[in-house]
């Protein structure tokens, strides 16, 4: 991860995160990717969840910019086998849904922006996943 990636990602997220539709589309893609994932959100207030995710992605972006991993470790705990029991392989579907949604919403999205996202937030996602 380098500063350039995190600047690219920060700006890309800035072009997307003010739109509620971005988060609606993210959960459509994410829940559309697996029946099991859809089932996990059966009783979830999705409007509240969209706001929580807006903040969660910001935590990943800030981690790429050098913020401590305390908040991500807390997310790792809530998603672990003693919490929501989110299986490690599901994070790949999460990242795919995010990249699909970014491609749809960020007018400047291209392969180099996509790679910057993956390099920048990969370590933060691993931090959450590892807590399983
Ligand atoms: C809740 C972020 C990956 C399923 C949450 C919350 C945040 C969040 C901020 C609310 C705070 C909390 O309860 O701790 C993220 C981030 C992810 C990620 C940043 C990727 C790195 C996943 C994956 C799944 C998932 C892969 C499922 C396959 C859930 C569920 C809840 C939740 C079921 C609780 C919903 C409820 O309250 O009903 N997530 N999450 N998350 N997340 Fe994630």
Task: Tag the structure with descriptive keywords.
Globin-like; mainly alpha; single chain; binds protoporphyrin IX containing FE; 7 helices; 132 residues; globular
What does this protein look like?
The model has no long low-confidence stretch (mean pLDDT 96). The protein has a single domain (3-130), classed as Globins (Globin-like, Orthogonal Bundle). It has 7 helices and no strands. The protein has 132 residues and is an all-alpha fold. The two termini are 24 Å apart. The protein is 74% helix and 0% strand. Bound molecules: protoporphyrin IX containing FE (HEM). Protoporphyrin IX containing FE binds next to helix 3, helix 4, helix 5, helix 6 and helix 7.
Total tally of structural domains: 1
User: CATH H-level name... which superfamily?
Assistant: Globins
Q: Work out the helicity level.
A: over 70%
CA radius of gyration:
14 Å
- Tell me the span between the first and last alpha carbons: 24 Å
Q: What would you say the CATH architecture is?
A: Orthogonal Bundle
Shape: globular
Average pLDDT metric: 96
Indicate the structural class.
mainly alpha
Catalogue the ligands: protoporphyrin IX containing FE
Strand/helix succession: HHHHHHH
Instruction: Enter the CATH topology name.
Output: Globin-like
What's the short story on this structure?
The chain is an all-alpha fold.
Topology:
Elements: H1 3-16, H2 20-32, H3 35-40, H4 46-64, H5 70-79, H6 90-105, H7 111-130
Helix pairs in contact: 1-4, 1-7, 2-4, 2-6, 4-7, 5-7, 6-7
Keywords: Heme, Iron, Metal-binding, Oxygen transport, Transport
Protein name: Globin domain-containing protein
Domain Globin: 1-132
